[in-house]
Structure formats: structure tokens, C-alpha cells
Amino acid sequence: MVTDVFIKRPILATVCSILITLAGAIAIPTLPIGRYPELAPPTVNVGAFYTGANAQAVESAVTTPLETVINGVEGMTYVTSASTNSGVSSITVTFEIGRDPDLAAVDVQNRVNSALGRMPLEVRTNGITVTKGTAGFLGAIGFYSENNRYDSLFISNYLDRYVRDALKRVPGVSNIIIFGERRFAMRLWLDPNRLAGRGLTAGARCASRTCRSQPARLVHSPPRRISCIS
């Protein structure tokens, strides 16, 4: 019997056990992986920006109409939304586990397109984004400047202009979030009387910038401050 050989020769049994263990350790990296288990449900994020509106106006004019058309999309389990005083509307649609994220994003995009006609002009001008999302973070990367050559404002602006888009193009990356994001801005002081002489108003939009100002009379009014964020 084979068992008798190993019982009578324990050294041989030990050597065979070691060889089997080494062979298994070597074979583990080469074993094919058939399938990863799906634990987190796929999500689709819908974002819109309503310039100059408060949270109540964003909720009634943007968030609620979008939720109405998105509700009932195939495979959806629930939807959450948020409206802020900065004019941002954010909707997160969560789908069943196993739902294809690409197909889910296409279905949501089709529902959003059907509601574009009811959106305010500012929202249609800025556009409504539909992106695939994830339930958690894959990783976090820290950026710093040696010898404190650049401050946090410069680093944040550099990441927004040159690093964010490059990382988004990496296969499998859904979104990039810059915590504590800050950008360079330009503050201008304009004279409403001189603007009126050129056929402009203090509430005019700057090209490729977002100008924030309050409506004011242009006749006999002091220079007003308008913040233009690039």
C-alpha cells in the first residue's frame, strides 16, 4: 500500500508535502480568474448647473423635472438628488446589481434628452452631464510641491487643467474628484456708465467666463464690482 510507504518513511512524506506546497504557490499567479463578484450596485450621476438660482429654484425648475422623467428607467432601484444655493443640481440613479453600467447610462441619457425642452435656457446652455458612477473610491493620490515652491492654489489649478482629464481617459476610471479644489480668478471693477456708452450692461457675460453681478441701474450709479471666474 502507498500509505504504508509514507508511514514508514516520514522524511519522504515531509519532502512530498513541501513539493506540493511549492507547486501550488507557483501555480496561483497563473490560474485564470473566471469572474469577480459584483458587490456594489452600478450608479449613474446626472449633473446640471442653473446660473444664479438658489436651491429652491433649482429644485423646482431642474431637479424635479429630471427626476420625473428618470423615474422608472429599466433596472432602477432608487434615485437620490440634491440642490444647492450655488445653482448645482445633482441626481444619482442606483440600479440593480448586474445591470450593465453603459446601458444604464444610455437609458438615463435618453430620459434626460426628453426633458431638455422644459429646462431653463441657462441649464440648456451649460448642458446636462450624465456619467457612470461608483459606490466608493478606488484610491487617493496626494500632490505636493518640493521646497514649497508652489502653493495649494497653484497645485489645485494645475490638477484641474492638466491632470484631471488625463486620468479620466484611463480605462475603468469613472470620475476624478479634487478635494479642496480652488481655481485662479480675476476680479474686475467696471464703470456702468462707460459700459452703457458701448452698448453693454453690468450683467453682461464675459466670453468663456462666468460673471456674477446683481441687476442695477446704469444711470448715475457708482462703479460696481463684478467677479469673473475663469
From the helix content, strand content and strand pairing, which structural class follows? alpha+beta
What is the CATH homology-level superfamily of the largest domain? Answer: Multidrug efflux transporter AcrB pore domain
Strand order of the largest sheet: 2-3-1-4
Q: What is the CATH class designation of the largest domain? A: Alpha Beta
Question: What's the mean pLDDT score?
Answer: 79
Walkthrough of the structure:
The protein is α+β, with helices and mostly antiparallel strands and 230 residues long. The chain folds into three domains: 1-31; 43-133, Alpha-Beta Plaits, CATH 3.30.70; 185-229, no CATH class. Helix content is 37%, strand content 19%. It has helices at residues 2-8, 10-27, 55-70, 101-114, 121-126, 152-168, 192-197; strands at residues 43-49, 76-83, 88-95, 129-133, 185-190, 210-212, 224-229. Strands 2-3-1-4 form a four-stranded antiparallel beta sheet. A three-stranded antiparallel beta sheet has the order 5-7-6. β2 and β3 form a beta hairpin.
Topology:
Blueprint: H1 2-8, H2 10-27, E1 43-49, H3 55-70, E2 76-83, E3 88-95, H4 101-114, H5 121-126, E4 129-133, H6 152-168, E5 185-190, H7 192-197, E6 210-212, E7 224-229
Antiparallel strand pairs: 1-3, 1-4, 2-3, 5-7, 6-7
Could you name the key traits of this structure?
230 residues, alpha+beta, Alpha-Beta Plaits, 3 domains, four-stranded antiparallel β-sheet, three-stranded antiparallel β-sheet, elongated, disordered C terminus
Overview in brief:
The chain is of the alpha+beta class and 230 residues long. Helices cover 37% and strands 19% of the residues.
